[in-house]
Amino acid sequence: MKKWTLSMLVIAVLAFGSVIGFNLMVKGKIADAIANMPEAEFPVTAMTLSAQSWQPTIDAIGFVEPQQGVTIANELAGRVTRISFENGTRVEKGQMLAELDAKVERANLKSKMVQLPAAEADFKRLSKLYGQKSISKQDLDNSESKYLALQADIESLKATIERREITAPFGGLVGIRNINLGEYLQPGTDIVRLEDISTMKIRFTIPQTQLPRIAVGQKTHIYVDSYPEQPFEGEIAAIEPAVFFQSGLIQVQARIPNDNAKLRSGMFARVSILLPKLENQFVLPQTAINFTLYGNSIYVIENVEEDGKQLERVKQLNLTVLERNGNDALVSGDIKVGDRIVTSGQIRLSNNSKVKVVEDKALTPTATMPKL
């Protein structure tokens, strides 16, 4: 029994020893393989740094407004007897848009007009008689009062009739009418929207710290979602004299020519106030910059010689991002003209990593579209 137990113990020790020895041998081989592996070479894309001009801007948002805009409404109640405009057409200042029933007022005006010559003649006759001391001053005053009251009634009826004739207060573009012929309107009914869109305006706010950098007449670019690639050129027309003390913002208004009528009121717009252009600046794509909480950095490719071979390694440099515009960023730091900057592939890099510059074909369109 003791011999059998001893034999089994020896077999177990030999089995476990062979397993442990095999694992140690495998680990040794792996360590040797890793030690003899060539250094990793990371593919990256790069650009050569050059000095270029930079257009600094102050950016804001706002809504487009017309030069003048009003919703035409009636002052008096009445039935619509005439509509003198077509939807979506241009009208001139003073042009008749709609007319309400004024038959009663016209009849009363005609009655007063008939009485006016007799009242005027009576007043002139009594004036002569008063000059001859033939009548009293009271008779002359009564005649004059009747004549002047008749004139006032005529003016009042004419004004009432004019208020029933709804005209355009200025030239512009009318929208879609909200009334129909024969409809009875209560006072203040919205008839149609009228806007002068020959020149548009946009109001926006900027921080008060930017106030020294702007002035009336300064050029602006306005972008709207309907034409995202087309900048509409305008200029600052007015600057609010007071700052909103609750927010520290100041309101600015820009004027935009709209001869082609592409801009319409209510459009959401992005405004860029153009500042003096800067020359000899360093501009990088934002994809080349590593943005972190501890600062911003880039990788600069350097040519080094190791063991008689020319290699490319990267050096990490900190820099300051001054401004951004789209995918571009204005930067400053320890960089110079001619430096090669990594633009993509830097996520796997660290300081002194070995790299290989490759051509980026991701954005290059193919000559022919693949068939499905």
Mean of pLDDT? 86
Determine and state the CATH class of the domain at 41-54 and 278-357.
Mainly Beta
The H/E string reads HEEEEEEHHEEEEEEEEEEEEEEE
Q: Which structural class do you get from the secondary structure elements?
A: alpha+beta
CATH architecture descriptor text of the domain at 41-54 and 278-357: Beta Barrel
**How far from one another are the termini?**
78 Å
Low-confidence stretches: none
Strand content: 35-45%
What is the CA-based Rg, rounded? 43 Å
Multimeric organization: single chain
The CATH topology name of the domain at 41-54 and 278-357 reads conserved putative lor/sdh protein from methanococcus maripaludis s2 fold
Summarize the amount of helix as a percent range. Answer: 10-25%
Structure description:
With 372 residues, this protein is an alpha+beta fold. Among the domains are: 41-54 and 278-357, conserved putative lor/sdh protein from methanococcus maripaludis s2 fold; 57-67 and 197-274, Beta Barrel (Elongation Factor Tu (Ef-tu), domain 3); 102-163, Helix Hairpins, CATH 1.10.287.470. It has helices spanning 2-36, 103-131, 137-163, and strands at residues 41-48, 51-54, 57-73, 78-83, 90-91, 96-100, 165-167, 172-174, 184-185, 190-207, 219-224, 227-244, 249-257, 268-274, 278-285, 290-292, 295-306, 309-325, 328-333, 340-344, 354-357. Helix 2 packs antiparallel against helix 3. The longest helix is centred in the N-terminal third of the chain and has 35 residues, at 2-36. It starts with a helix and ends in a 15-residue tail after the last strand. 17% of the residues are buried.
